[in-house]
Specification:
about 5% helix, mainly beta, oxidoreductase, Protocatechuate 3,4-dioxygenase subunit beta, dioxygenase, about 240 residues, PCDO_beta_N, Protocat_dOase_b
Length: about 240
């Protein structure tokens, strides 16, 4: 067996937002005041609990149908697809992705969401899927709506989908957000604008992909997730990546 060797991919920390970003109001209270401590993972965190691939249902990656009871949910039907890759662009197979989002009106199915938009009775807003042998994934959903949040007098979150990528155990979890090409609210969002590097923001924006669209049914957006290296996708719960 030969072991592949190559250059070490140094993280580009200039892509990471500062912990204290006053325009993002809640970071003022949450940002640390003392140097951070690095805590190593225990063996139980590394090895488990694990996810059984047989636990996936046939509709888990179809948010249009996996909660519907009386008809399809309201909204623009879309397909989100892409690949999960490492720092060398190699696909990461059999990786669990979980997604959750607001409905087409910009409201989450959560008791704490008091947005004026109505709850869609046929939309649960969450799903999951596994990458294939090449690291590819896909799910079907409706495009989420923008919604106001209590950061400033008139701040709105751009349309986005939350994505979790799991490693070999549930404790190995990376979380990011995917935005949509052409959304003018991206440049106005205090959360997005905490990223100092425009290229890091661009990596969170999914371009329209007409080649993967279904005629007269669904538009498509492509979102690739890079786990490590200089071009790593920004992960909000672990900025340095895996």
């Amino acid at each position: 067996m030969t072991v592949e060797t190559g250059a070490f991919f140094m993280r580009d920390r200039r892509r990471h937002p500062p912990a204290l970003s006053p325009s993002y109001k809640t970071s003022v209270a949450r940002s640390p005041r003392l140097p951070l401590l690095s805590l190593g993972s225990t063996m139980s965190e590394i090895t488990g609990p694990v996810f059984g691939h047989g636990d996936l249902g046939p509709l888990d990656n179809d948010l249009i149908r996996n909660f519907a009871s009386t008809g399809d949910p309201v909204g623009e039907r879309i397909i989100v697809h892409g690949r999960v890759v490492d720092e060398r662009g190699r696909g990461v197979p059999h990786t669990l992705l979980e997604v959750w989002q607001a409905n087409a009106g910009g409201r989450y199915r959560h008791r704490n969401d008091r947005h004026l938009a109505p709850i869609d009775p046929n939309f649960g807003g969450c799903g999951r899927c596994l990458t294939d042998e090449t690291g590819a994934y896909a799910f079907r959903t409706v495009k989420p709506g923008a919604y106001p949040w209590r950061n400033g007098a008139n701040d709105w979150r751009p349309a986005h989908i939350h994505i979790s990528v799991f490693g070999t155990g549930f404790a190995q979890r990376l979380i990011t957000q995917m935005y949509f090409e052409g959304d003018p609210l991206i440049a106005r969002c205090p959360i997005v604008q905490t990223l100092p590097d425009p290229a890091a923001i661009e990596a969170l924006v999914a371009p329209l992909d007409m080649n993967a669209a279904v005629p007269f049914d669904s538009l498509a957006y492509r979102f690739d997730i890079v786990l490590r290296g200089r071009r790593s996708t920004f992960f909000e719960n672990r900025p340095e990546g895996n």
